[in-house]
Amino acid sequence: MSQGFGHPAFPVxxxxxxxxxxxxxxxxxxxxxxxxxxxxxxxxxxxxxLHLQIIFYGREYCEARKCFGLECKxxxxxxxxxxxxVQTKKTLIDIFAIGS
Length: 100
Prior knowledge:
mainly alpha
């Protein structure tokens, strides 16, 4: 809806869910709660673009299975004293992906 028709939306997939947890933007246990939290933080006019920016930044600099909150500039800037990897909560999608 957001990309095809410009309808304000902030779709959250497992990658955005992991990054939002890693960056301290949510402590939601599922993508639905993470979506609600992100919509409260960011203004509606930025949702469509920000959704893509998070995805592209994550793919390039804060990869789901490599950074764990210790490598990228956002992680190091927001949490300079973080020494241990962030353990993100697993979603059903993660659980099914691991099993396959």
